Protein backbone atom coordinates (compact mmCIF):
# COMPACT_ATOMS: atom_id res chain seq x y z
CA UNK A 1 0.00 0.00 0.00
CA UNK A 2 1.33 3.39 -0.95
CA UNK A 3 1.82 6.19 1.55
CA UNK A 4 -0.59 8.42 -0.39
CA UNK A 5 -3.33 5.80 -0.08
CA UNK A 6 -2.80 5.54 3.67
CA UNK A 7 -2.94 9.31 4.03
CA UNK A 8 -6.16 9.41 1.99
CA UNK A 9 -7.67 6.68 4.17
CA UNK A 10 -6.73 8.55 7.35
CA UNK A 11 -8.18 11.76 5.97
CA UNK A 12 -11.40 9.96 5.04
CA UNK A 13 -11.57 8.40 8.52
CA UNK A 14 -11.26 11.86 10.05
CA UNK A 15 -14.03 13.15 7.78
CA UNK A 16 -16.26 10.22 8.75
CA UNK A 17 -15.65 10.88 12.43
CA UNK A 18 -16.44 14.57 12.03
CA UNK A 19 -19.64 13.89 10.10
CA UNK A 20 -20.70 11.21 12.60
CA UNK A 21 -20.35 13.67 15.47
CA UNK A 22 -22.32 16.28 13.56
CA UNK A 23 -25.07 13.79 12.66
CA UNK A 24 -25.30 12.52 16.22
CA UNK A 25 -25.70 16.08 17.51
CA UNK A 26 -28.25 17.09 14.88
CA UNK A 27 -30.20 13.84 14.77
CA UNK A 28 -30.13 13.57 18.53
CA UNK A 29 -32.36 16.64 18.70
CA UNK A 30 -35.04 15.13 16.45
CA UNK A 31 -38.24 14.36 18.30
CA UNK A 32 -40.22 11.12 18.16
CA UNK A 33 -43.56 10.27 19.71
CA UNK A 34 -45.19 7.00 20.73
CA UNK A 35 -48.51 6.10 22.28
CA UNK A 36 -50.06 3.14 24.03
CA UNK A 37 -53.52 2.21 25.19
CA UNK A 38 -55.12 3.72 22.12
CA UNK A 39 -53.58 7.10 22.84
CA UNK A 40 -54.18 7.05 26.58
CA UNK A 41 -50.42 7.47 27.18
CA UNK A 42 -48.15 9.53 24.92
CA UNK A 43 -44.38 9.71 25.29
CA UNK A 44 -42.23 12.25 23.47
CA UNK A 45 -38.48 11.61 23.26
CA UNK A 46 -35.41 12.98 21.53
CA UNK A 47 -33.58 10.68 19.15
CA UNK A 48 -30.58 10.73 21.48
CA UNK A 49 -32.71 8.71 23.92
CA UNK A 50 -33.93 11.43 26.27
CA UNK A 51 -37.60 11.33 27.24
CA UNK A 52 -39.03 14.85 27.00
CA UNK A 53 -42.54 14.29 28.25
CA UNK A 54 -45.16 11.76 29.25
CA UNK A 55 -48.81 12.66 28.84
CA UNK A 56 -51.54 10.58 30.47
CA UNK A 57 -55.20 11.05 29.61
CA UNK A 58 -57.04 12.02 32.81
CA UNK A 59 -59.68 9.34 32.23
CA UNK A 60 -56.97 6.69 32.57
CA UNK A 61 -56.16 7.90 36.07
CA UNK A 62 -59.75 7.32 37.14
CA UNK A 63 -59.11 3.59 36.78
CA UNK A 64 -57.66 2.11 39.96
CA UNK A 65 -55.69 -0.53 38.01
CA UNK A 66 -52.19 0.76 38.76
CA UNK A 67 -50.47 -2.18 37.03
CA UNK A 68 -52.29 -1.44 33.78
CA UNK A 69 -51.29 2.23 33.96
CA UNK A 70 -47.67 1.26 34.65
CA UNK A 71 -47.71 -1.19 31.72
CA UNK A 72 -49.09 1.47 29.37
CA UNK A 73 -46.43 3.97 30.45
CA UNK A 74 -43.69 1.38 30.07
CA UNK A 75 -44.94 0.33 26.62
CA UNK A 76 -45.10 3.91 25.37
CA UNK A 77 -41.62 4.68 26.74
CA UNK A 78 -40.12 1.59 25.13
CA UNK A 79 -41.74 2.37 21.78
CA UNK A 80 -40.53 5.98 21.89
CA UNK A 81 -36.98 4.84 22.66
CA UNK A 82 -37.13 2.23 19.87
CA UNK A 83 -38.22 4.94 17.43
CA UNK A 84 -35.43 7.19 18.69
CA UNK A 85 -32.84 4.47 18.07
CA UNK A 86 -34.26 3.92 14.58
CA UNK A 87 -33.90 7.62 13.72
CA UNK A 88 -30.26 7.58 14.84
CA UNK A 89 -29.59 4.36 12.92
CA UNK A 90 -31.05 5.85 9.73
CA UNK A 91 -28.99 9.02 10.07
CA UNK A 92 -25.78 7.07 10.67
CA UNK A 93 -26.53 4.89 7.63
CA UNK A 94 -26.76 8.03 5.49
CA UNK A 95 -23.25 9.04 6.53
CA UNK A 96 -21.95 5.54 5.83
CA UNK A 97 -23.47 5.50 2.35
CA UNK A 98 -22.04 8.96 1.61
CA UNK A 99 -18.58 7.46 2.12
CA UNK A 100 -19.37 4.27 0.22
CA UNK A 101 -19.25 2.13 3.34
CA UNK A 102 -21.39 -1.01 3.58
CA UNK A 103 -24.62 -0.73 5.60
CA UNK A 104 -24.19 -1.59 9.27
CA UNK A 105 -20.44 -1.00 9.31
CA UNK A 106 -20.74 2.06 11.54
Question: What would your notes on this structure say?
Answer:
The protein has 106 residues and is α+β, with helices and mostly antiparallel strands. It has a single domain, classed as Nucleoid-associated protein YbaB-like domain (Ybab, Chain: A, 2-Layer Sandwich), CATH 3.30.1310.10. Helices cover 59% and strands 17% of the residues. The chain has 3 helices and 3 strands; from the N terminus they run αβββαα. It has helices at 3-28, 58-61, 66-98, and strands spanning 31-36, 41-46, 51-56. Strands 1-2-3 form a 3-stranded antiparallel sheet. Helix 1 (3-28) runs antiparallel to helix 3 (66-98). The longest helix is centred in the last third of the chain and has 33 residues, at 66-98. The mean pLDDT is 86.
Topology:
Blueprint: H1 3-28, E1 31-36, E2 41-46, E3 51-56, H2 58-61, H3 66-98
Antiparallel strand pairs: 1-2, 2-3
Helix pairs in contact: 1-3
**Helix run count:** 3
Head-to-tail CA distance between termini: 24 Å
CATH architecture: 2-Layer Sandwich
Count of folded domains: 1
In what range is the share of β-strand residues?
15-25%
Output the CATH topology.
Ybab, Chain: A
Structural class: alpha+beta
Low-confidence stretches: none
Instruction: Evaluate the radius of gyration.
Output: 20 Å
Task: Tell how many strands the DSSP assignment holds.
Answer: 3
Strand order of the largest sheet: 1-2-3
Largest sheet: 3 strands, antiparallel
Question: Can you give the helix content as a percent range?
Answer: 55-70%
CATH class type: Alpha Beta
CATH homologous superfamily (4th level) name:
Nucleoid-associated protein YbaB-like domain
Q: What does the overall shape look like?
A: rod-shaped
SSE order, as H and E? HEEEHH
Report the average pLDDT across residues. Answer: 86
Amino acid sequence: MKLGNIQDMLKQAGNIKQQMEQIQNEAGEKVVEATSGGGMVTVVAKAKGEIISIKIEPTLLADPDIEMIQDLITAACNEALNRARQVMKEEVSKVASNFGLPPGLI
